[in-house]
Write a structure and sequence with these properties.
The protein is an alpha/beta fold. The protein has one domain: Uracil-DNA glycosylase-like domain (Uracil-DNA Glycosylase, subunit E), CATH 3.40.470. Helix content is 39%, strand content 12%. It has a six-stranded mixed sheet, sandwiched between helices. The protein is globular. The N and C termini lie far apart (41 Å).
């Protein structure tokens, strides 16, 4: 029996599962990324496109980290702690994400963390399609300002929203996708790991794959 061909690390030629985004970011990096992000953040704080979310939120949750980050972590939407504090990933799942980042010999301050939605859905439900559509402009503008080399999608909701693809997260893991100027990996959300600790090993394999691609040795912290 002939050997089963291995799945390529980068997959760009699967029209049924791959994004159709253009190559590159399509614009120069702003001279002052922090100021450019602040402009978008101000617009987000005044947004009422989703009437229910605007009515029920405590505040919007824009993003946090380095405006010049090589790596962005993308979640789905703020939770109760994030809605209260105005910062993404600050609850129990956020604490676990911080540990994952530190295990990769990085610091929260040198990556950028954001969500597909900037408002908390009531009851922490998944974002509705129209809500994701309404918020997409802000997400795209954030990423275009930062222009990360790498994006790590945390959970299936974030992966599907960014890449506009469908399928189980397990089938998205273990390879890179392309989104404009970034290489994208998909892994389990930290909240999922709190409910299913055995999946931490899978996430660590995903992160080691990502760090290797970024030229970071997770054992020594050396960067090529």
């Amino acid at each position: 029996m002939p050997p089963t061909p291995q799945r390529p690390l980068f997959e760009d030629q699967e029209p049924e599962t791959e994004p159709t985004a253009e190559d590159g970011w399509g614009a120069a990096v702003p001279q002052n990324p922090a100021a450019a992000l602040a402009v978008v953040q101000e617009e987000v704080s005044e947004c009422v496109r989703c009437s229910e979310l605007a009515r029920t939120r405590t505040q919007t949750v824009f993003g946090v980290g380095s405006p010049q980050a090589r790596l962005c972590f993308l979640g789905e939407a703020p939770g109760a702690d994030e809605d209260r504090q105005g910062e993404p990933f600050v609850g129990r799942a956020g604490q676990l994400l911080t540990k994952i980042i530190e295990a990769c010999t990085l610091r929260r301050e040198e990556v950028y963390i954001l969500n597909t939605l900037k408002c908390r859905p009531p009851g922490n439900r998944n974002p509705a399609p129209l809500e994701s559509e309404n918020c997409r402009e802000f997400l795209d503008r954030q990423l275009a300002i930062i222009q990360p080399e790498y994006i790590c999608c945390l959970g299936a909701v974030a992966a599907k929203a960014l890449l506009q693809i469908d399928g189980a997260l397990g089938k998205m893991r273990g390879r890179f996708f392309r989104y404009r100027g970034a290489a994208v990996i998909c892994t389990y959300h930290p909240a999922y790991l709190l409910r299913n600790p055995s999946a931490k090993r899978d996430v660590w394999e995903d992160m080691k794959m990502l760090m290797q691609e970024m030229g970071i040795d997770v054992e020594t912290g050396q960067r090529s």
